[in-house]
Amino acid sequence: MKMDRKQSYLQQDSLKSNPFGLPEGYFDSFPERLQQRIREEESSRVAVRRIGTTTRWLAAAAAVLATALITTSIIRLTNSDRGTDSRYPDMAILEQLQVFDDDRYLYDLIEDNDAVNLNEDDAFASQAIEYLAVNDVEMDLIFE
Amino acid sequence: MPHWEDSEIIKGFRVQGKQEKAFNELVLKYQERLYWQIRKIVLDHDDADDVLQNTMVKVWKSLANFRSESELYTWLYRIATNEALSFLKQKKKKSFAPWMDVEEQMADRLEADPWFEGDEIQLKLQEAILKLPDKQRVVFNMKYFDQVKYEDMSKILGTSVGALKASYHHAVKKIESMLKDD
Questions:
Q1: If you measure CA to CA, which chain A residue comes closest to B177?
Q2: By CA distance, what is B124's nearest residue in A?
Q3: Whether B46 contacts chain A with CB within 8 A
Q4: Nearest CB to B116 within list A7, A12, A19
Q5: Among B115, B119, B145, whose Cβ lies nearest the Cβ of A22?
Q6: Whether B45 and A15 lie within 8 Å, measured CB to CB
Q7: Are B139 and B164 in contact (CB under 8 A)?
Q8: Are B115 and A23 within 8 A, CB to CB?
Q9: pTM of the model
């Protein structure tokens, strides 16, 4: 019995009545409020269009200028960040390296010659000392 | 004062200098019907007012391109329904309490709404309707409260009559079972 009553809930006419209320005079004032909103939207759209047509070329020129400025400043910045070596062109660096190599070669050569000379002198000196010692010559006399 | 015929409104809107008058006639003729269609979906009066304004602004912008292939009122109902459903979707996205369903929030608001004049059973019915999927809710409202014919509903919602009948049948079953459980 209870279920039958509940099953017919949606068939009750009272449920079909509108349960929502409204502020008084809502539909009287709505058309005017709507016209106001449309006028506002239209005027803002016209303003946007006017700005678009009059300043189009200026905006394009400004964009090109800005791009050029940004590009050059980026190039400058990246160059100043590099070390001193990087400022030399590649050929200059190679020449520099060659000079260093030549210097090093010369240094090695001198060093080797000295070593040979020194060895000969030392050998000669030791031979002389040996000879004088064998022949009983006083060392003090030689140094004097 | 009798309203203009739909054909007069459409013709008038295409005449330079007569646009505002024709549009005003459209608003006067349809504002109330569209408001209630929207209000039953969004429930809150202020939300319904926003959605009705958005609907009418869209109509103002696109009425010049309206093709008379469909009837004016089905076109207006379609815009109003879509606007109301997208409003709810936006509301779900912007929800301040994401742990709570928007439907739950709407039910809570309805209880405290000074513009809700229904009794306890009507409140329970609205809460049950809120638990239905969006499309089923729209179909139920149109059939149950406004007795819109399935053929007209089909033109408005772009769904076959058979699918609408099935949708309404499911909605009624769900609501009855929800009311029984309470």
A1: A7
A2: A15
A3: no
A4: A19
A5: B115
A6: no
A7: yes
A8: yes
A9: 0.67
Phi, psi of B60 (to 5 degrees): -55, -40
The number of C-beta contacts closer than 8 angstroms across A and B is 75
Distance from CA of A70 to the nearest CA of B (A): 39
Q: Please state the ipTM of this predicted complex.
A: 0.87
How would you write the pLDDT of chain B (182 residues) with one tens digit per residue? Answer: 788 999 999 999 999 899 999 999 999 999 999 999 999 999 999 999 999 999 999 999 999 989 877 899 999 999 999 999 999 999 888 776 666 777 888 888 888 888 999 999 999 999 999 999 999 999 999 999 999 999 999 999 999 999 999 999 999 999 999 988 76
Contacts of A43 in chain B (CB under 8 A): none
Q: A20: which strand partners?
A: B116
DSSP secondary structure letters along chain A: -HHHHHHTGGG-HHHHS--B---TTHHHHHHHHHHHHHHHHHHHHHHHHHHHHHTHHHHHHHHHHHHHHHHHHHHHHHHHHS-SGGGS-HHHHHHHHHHHHHHHHHHHHHHHHHHHHHHHHHHHHHHHHHHHHHTT--HHHHH-
Q: Give B147's DSSP letter.
A: -
Nearest 5°: CA angle at A24, between A19 and A25? 120
Rounded to whole angstroms, how far apart are CA atoms B180 and B121? 12
Neighbours of B71 (CB within 10 A): 13
